[in-house]
Design the sequence.
């Protein structure tokens, strides 16, 4: 509301119910008799503005000091806290329907962080129990991955009076909530307690009144599947037991549901949950920066078999390729290391490589291995951390079950052949490839300047470097190679890319850098350089392809102009687009002809599955066992807000106690992620990210004391770079350990693409048949998700880095 009308608030409230009445002008003159005519006219215009119909959804999650839940009105689903609901309903009664005035009133409640902040700026007293810091609280709902509850038949929302009779002949009145041919959900008061697996006979008293032929004297037998308690009620989920046949009742119920499901509406809760879950999964799975390696168990031996690739984790493959392009990552997962991982469940591994006589030699050692050999630890860390190839990895072990490879739709087969086809389990040939899979070894690169600098403080002796030879990877061919599989999701690129490794020479500002191509397309190329590129995005460079030139005399392949579109953190991986000064340039003509002539030989990243469906199967198993914390940022116009947090499989994640501290059920509070900077780093970072940009990575230290009564005093949070020296980092860690808990997180953030509507099409169409507005709301909400992040617990590595070994070993 405009500030000029605040003094007339009481008059406006009195006039809202009569704004559309014929005698409104008389009422206005009576109530506002002491107000001048010009002001009365303005009040009238303001009321007419507020009385205009409104169709805008209100979402207060993260914007108010209170827990928000879904609230439906007029076909729209809002997300409101109890105070907002009270204001909403009061304003609806005043206006008679959902209007601009209702929308504005609900968005200006006393517990709105923006309103409280403005009051503080104006020197006003804010509502007791709120805090100036409350504007920085970020309660965020939890989304459950793999929430694909499949139904065997459609359920119809239908309320009818029933009577429950248990084995002791105790009668209880209840009412149905939804009904299917073989199942029921009913609501009953808490007076009579019910248990799962209890047998009941149900008398459909309401149906008996309306349909006399359905008066079944013996009742219909059911078994309780689940019992949920909500406020003063019990919600019972039941299924038919068919202990005696009721053919007339069965036939009637089937006809009744088919004839009335559009009138009473099909219950679609499970399908809405499935679409939401899949929507958030398909934002995370293509972007996660960890590499899942699937481990097979044969007797006592653990064998790495498959890896799931995406755009976020492909740097692993660039790093572990030798001088000939051969992938050498298998030995990182050698038997001894996997045994250590099986015992510890998570370990840290340090790695580097060196070039000798044109050959690449890889080295790796776990923190535990180095801890047992202090002298070698100094040599390994001191020498390795000074190499450009230095890497610090976190390895986690996840238990998996091959049955998790199957993720059917939430819809029953009876809806048609297409649904039945999509609900078909993986074929036996594919399951035979997966049946012995037991674990996922999740590899995450957590390297950055801060841990590199810390390890460079170890002094090494060149004469002792031969002693680290036991950590070198053998150069013999691996006995069991890891096959790479890419989960197929919506292709957001304008053209297919093909794998091709060939020498390339890059010229920038007179400096020549050698490298190799990683993949090519008609208009672009991705290259890996031997030394870091010192330019920036949008710079133009010249490329020459000496090996490819040997196969083409028609096109000169030197000095071709490309524009830099993306650069990795180290400056060694470049994404380039050909600059077209003319309608068609040499690079475009050459690569178009090369791809057409060799399409059967070149591997496309979008069509390279040896076993159809294996990429999706691996993706399903990984999605069912997420151990790091995905989080999502949404965008409403220009405003960025926290949107959701992915449910994780491993409840032992170090950050969970802090994020769940004083959080409402079904939410986590992401305040610790935002408390270290103002404006919040994640919000500002998202504004700078572009589609397909590499993930931004920051390291966060959290001191958490759950015994503090004031929520905001429970946390002290800083980014690692906000300390000016290691001594202060160690001091922060020591104080946190002494007064509660120390948590270190690696925070990754990247921008989402557009939703993969093809993945959701079947279930979205089903919802659209019965509730088009709900399908539209779901799609609009998925489009509003702007960023996806990942929280990796690196507490153990940070403690080792700053000399707190006794806290780790």
Sequence:
């Amino acid at each position: 509301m405009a500030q000029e009308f605040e003094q007339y608030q009481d008059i406006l409230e009195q006039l809202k119910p009569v704004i559309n009445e014929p005698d409104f002008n008389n009422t206005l003159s009576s109530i506002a008799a002491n107000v001048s005519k010009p002001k009365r006219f303005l009040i009238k215009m303001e009321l007419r503005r507020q009385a205009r119909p409104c169709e805008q959804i209100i979402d207060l999650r993260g914007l108010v000091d209170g827990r928000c839940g879904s609230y439906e009105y007029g076909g729209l689903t809002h997300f409101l806290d109890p105070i907002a609901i009270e204001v909403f309903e009061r304003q609806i009664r005043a206006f008679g329907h959902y209007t601009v005035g209702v929308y504005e009133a609900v968005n200006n409640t006393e517990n709105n962080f923006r309103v409280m902040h403005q009051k503080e700026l104006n020197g006003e007293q804010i509502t007791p129990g709120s805090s100036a810091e409350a504007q920085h609280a970020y309660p965020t709902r939890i989304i459950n991955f793999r929430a694909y509850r499949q139904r065997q038949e459609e359920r119809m929302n239908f309320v009818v009076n029933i009577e429950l009779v248990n084995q002791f002949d105790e009668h209880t009145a209840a009412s149905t909530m939804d009904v299917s041919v073989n199942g029921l959900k009913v609501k009953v008061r808490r007076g009579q307690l019910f248990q799962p697996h209890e047998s009941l006979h149900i008398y459909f008293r309401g149906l008996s009144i309306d349909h006399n032929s359905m008066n079944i004297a013996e009742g219909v037998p059911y078994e309780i599947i689940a019992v949920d308690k909500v406020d003063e009620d019990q919600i019972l989920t039941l299924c038919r037991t068919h202990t005696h046949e009721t053919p007339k009742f069965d036939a009637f119920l089937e006809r009744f549901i088919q004839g009335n499901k559009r009138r009473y509406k099909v219950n679609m809760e499970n399908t809405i949950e499935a679409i939401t879950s899949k929507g958030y999964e398909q934002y995370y799975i293509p972007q996660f920066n960890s590499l899942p390696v699937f481990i097979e168990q044969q007797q006592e031996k653990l064998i790495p078999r498959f890896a799931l690739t995406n755009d976020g984790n492909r740097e692993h493959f660039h790093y572990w390729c030798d001088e000939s392009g051969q992938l050498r990552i298998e030995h990182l997962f050698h038997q001894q290391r996997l045994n250590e991982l099986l015992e510890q469940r998570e370990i840290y591994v340090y790695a580097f490589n060196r070039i000798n006589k044109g050959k690449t030699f890889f080295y790796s050692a776990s923190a535990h291995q180095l801890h047992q050999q202090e002298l070698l630890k100094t040599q390994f860390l001191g020498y390795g951390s000074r190499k450009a190839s230095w890497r610090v990895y976190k390895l986690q072990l996840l238990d998996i079950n091959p049955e998790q490879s199957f993720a059917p739709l939430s819809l029953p087969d009876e809806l048609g052949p297409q649904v039945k086809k999509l609900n078909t389990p993986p074929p036996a040939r594919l399951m035979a490839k997966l049946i012995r899979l037991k674990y996922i070894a999740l590899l995450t690169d957590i390297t950055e300047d801060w841990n590199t600098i810390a390890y460079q403080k170890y002094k090494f002796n060149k004469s002792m470097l031969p002693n680290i030879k036991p950590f070198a990877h053998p150069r013999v061919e691996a006995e069991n190679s890891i096959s790479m599989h890419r989960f197929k999701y919506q292709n957001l690129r304008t053209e297919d890319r093909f794998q091709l490794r060939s020498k390339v020479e890059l010229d920038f500002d007179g400096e020549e850098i050698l490298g190799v191509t990683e993949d090519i397309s008609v208009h672009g190329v991705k290259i890996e350089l031997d030394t870091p590129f010192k330019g920036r995005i949008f710079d133009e460079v010249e490329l020459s392809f000496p090996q490819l030139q040997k196969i083409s005399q028609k096109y000169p392949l030197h000095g071709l102009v490309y524009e830099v579109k993306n650069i990795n953190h180290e400056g060694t991986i470049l994404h380039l687009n050909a600059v077209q000064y003319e309608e068609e340039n040499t690079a475009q003509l050459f690569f178009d002809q090369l791809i057409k002539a060799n399409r059967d030989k070149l591997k496309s990243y979008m069509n390279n599955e040896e076993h159809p469906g294996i990429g999706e199967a691996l993706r399903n198993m990984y999605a069912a066992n997420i151990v790091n914390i995905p989080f999502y940022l949404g965008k409403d116009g220009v405003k960025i807000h926290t949107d959701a947090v992915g449910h994780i499989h491993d409840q032992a994640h170090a950050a969970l106690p802090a994020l769940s501290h004083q959080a409402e059920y079904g939410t986590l509070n992401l305040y610790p992620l935002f408390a270290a900077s103002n404006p919040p780093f994640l919000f500002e970072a998202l504004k700078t990210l572009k589609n397909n940009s590499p993930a931004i990575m920051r390291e966060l230290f959290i001191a958490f004391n759950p015994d503090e009564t004031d929520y905001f005093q429970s946390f002290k949070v800083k980014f690692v770079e906000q300390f000016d020296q290691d001594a202060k980092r160690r001091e922060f860690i020591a104080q946190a350990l002494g007064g509660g808990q120390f948590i270190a997180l690696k925070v990754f953030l990247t921008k989402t693409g557009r939703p993969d509507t093809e993945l959701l099409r079947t279930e979205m169409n089903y919802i659209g048949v019965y509730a088009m507005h709900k399908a539209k709301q779901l799609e609009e909400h998925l489009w509003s998700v702007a960023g996806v992040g990942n929280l990796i617990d690196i507490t153990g590595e940070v403690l080792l880095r700053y000399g707190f070994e006794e806290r780790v070993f």
